[in-house]
Design brief:
The chain is mostly helical. The chain contains 21 helices and 2 strands. The protein has a two-stranded antiparallel sheet with strand order 1-2. The longest helix has 34 residues.
């Protein structure tokens, strides 16, 4: 089978068309800030010392905004600006993202939770007992920044999927792999900047100096401005590909409704949603195990995340070279089992005080990132296969909205599981008795068992390879009722998760036992 589009493949290594890669690099910087653990751990845990359920909910609330990305996929498909469907929306997204971090920079510089005494952090004296109130405006600003970044990401990935259709089936997915590798390099830049610039006494780091949070946020705002420049001057949209007919919105909606009722599309929506929910469930105890028992400070976190991101890149490169045509089910099964079992072993050895070493604990991130890179690339591959000409934006928007909406739901489930064990605040970890260790281990074990259950969805909802997807699409089988059922389930669960995390992030209700707190 040849390419899905007769136009020649684009050479994205030329400077004039390298905007895809440069944009992905800038996006990587912000996705690690707002979706990754590096910055969140340094700012919300080491600096502000939020409780476990508050930390999880802050993360979940910001990630939830990505679930509305499909709206911009739809808009960019049907409403071009100045004759182009992607670049203008990329620029709009970058402007909003840059302004949100400029707003963070203009807020009053937050004080650390513990008292800074010279070059050391005095954990016996609390200087900012209102850390959740301090964190609240930043969480809301991050949420706005994440939403604006999703506009850029969806528009850019729509462009990448259009170029992906030009590649022959034996190589299809390489442009997606290269662009995602650049995104990981961007995440690597964030890891290094956090490990060096936010490694002073306020973060329990090793340096006597550090830049203020306001300065750091202003630097991020500048990177958003760089994204604007790369979108305008080094990103190519070819008029013969992006010119669309003046079809009515109703006709477009009818066609979209038909596409989203196709059996393969509906199956993959169910798979991404339920697999991601089960696979991403995480106890609120994990962050406290990391900070108090494993004593992970910025330097071990930096080193482990550098290696983790490098292995992420290597895994995607190896997959692109040798595994691009292998069974997706086998790859998913292997990666899922290996991540869950290895991380459970590391957690157990740390909790029961066999090995409490920050570098040993951080090896969990290194090992899991190697296999996570393969999972992410597989999701991108399937998105590319399911995309249809003129519907690339909405296709990618819907599928990635489902993919990114699952972790907030998972974190909420993890908070609920952990509530009965009272593992959110510091007291149990400082006491460190045998009973405390078992109380911490039980919710983590429950969450890992739920993670393993994700395998069930591989063999019931995931198609095995690219060729099978294309063959099944030709069969024209429709699942309208199952699509409607999915929409109802998705909206209901998402609404409940949004309300739960909003109350958890809000300072006056975050202490509720129903939300994982210790009681008001």
């Amino acid at each position: 089978m040849t390419a899905l589009d007769d136009n020649p493949p684009i050479n994205y290594f030329k400077f004039k068309s390298s905007g895809i890669l440069f944009n992905k690099l800038c996006i990587g910087v912000f996705t690690d800030i707002m979706l990754g653990n590096t910055f969140y751990y340094s700012f919300f845990q080491l600096y502000l010392n939020l409780e476990g359920h508050q930390y999880n909910s802050a993360m979940a609330f910001v990630q939830l905004t990505w679930t509305f990305a499909f709206i911009w996929g739809l808009v960019s498909d049907v409403i071009p600006i100045c004759g182009k469907r992607r670049i203008p929306y990329m620029v709009i997204g970058w402007i909003g993202c840059s302004l949100s971090f400029a707003f963070c920079a203009l807020l009053k510089n937050p004080q650390p939770y513990f008292l800074v005494d010279g070059c050391y952090l005095n954990k016996s004296i609390i200087s900012n007992p209102w850390s959740i109130e301090t964190a609240e405006p930043f969480v809301y600003a991050f949420a706005v920044g994440m939403y604006m970044l999703s506009i850029t990401q969806v528009s850019l990935m729509s462009l990448i999927m259009e170029y992906n259709r030009r590649e022959p089936i034996c190589h299809r997915g390489k442009i997606a792999a290269c662009s995602h590798i650049m995104e990981v390099f961007g995440r690597l830049l964030t890891v290094v900047s956090v490990g060096i610039l936010l490694n002073g006494p306020s973060f329990n780091g090793i340096f006597c100096w550090e830049i203020s949070m306001s300065q750091y946020f202003m630097g991020l705002s500048f990177i958003g401005f760089v994204g604007i420049l790369t979108s305008l001057f080094t990103t190519v949209e070819e008029s013969n590909l992006f010119t669309i007919s003046k079809e009515s919105i109703s006709k477009y909606s009818d066609e979209l409704w038909k596409i989203t009722s196709e059996k393969e599309f509906v199956k993959f929506c169910y798979f991404v949603f339920f697999y991601s929910i089960f696979f991403c469930v995480q106890s609120s105890a994990s962050v406290k195990v990391k900070s108090i028992w494993a004593k992970v400070t910025p330097i071990p976190n930096l080193i482990s995340n550098v290696f983790a991101n490098l292995l992420f890149i290597i895994s995607m490169y190896l997959y692109k070279l040798y595994l691009i045509n292998i069974s997706w089910r086998k790859v998913f099964c292997f990666t899922t089992c290996s991540i869950v079992l290895v991380t459970l072993l590391i957690d157990a050895l740390t909790i029961f005080d066999y090995i409490r070493n920050p570098y040993f604990y951080c090896s969990e991130a290194i090992i899991s990132n190697f296999t996570t890179g393969i999972i992410v690339f597989l999701i991108l591959q399937v998105c590319g296969e399911l995309s249809t000409l003129k519907f690339e934006g909405i296709t990618f928007g819907i599928l990635t909205s489902i993919w990114t909406s699952a972790p907030p739901i998972s974190l909420t489930i993890g908070n609920i599981i952990s509530t009965n064990f009272h593992v959110s605040n510091d007291e149990r970890y400082l006491r460190d008795s045998e009973n405390d260790r078992w109380s911490v281990f039980k919710p983590i074990l429950c969450c890992k068992c739920i993670n393993l259950c994700a395998i069930v969805f591989l063999f019931t909802l995931l198609t095995d390879q690219k060729c099978q997807i294309q063959e099944n699409l030709k069969s024209l089988i429709k699942w309208p009722l199952k699509r409607n059922a999915f929409i109802a389930i998705y909206c209901g669960v998402l609404l409940l998760t949004a309300i739960t995390n909003l109350f958890t992030v809000h300072s006056s209700t975050s202490c509720s036992t129903l939300l994982g707190g210790s009681g008001c």
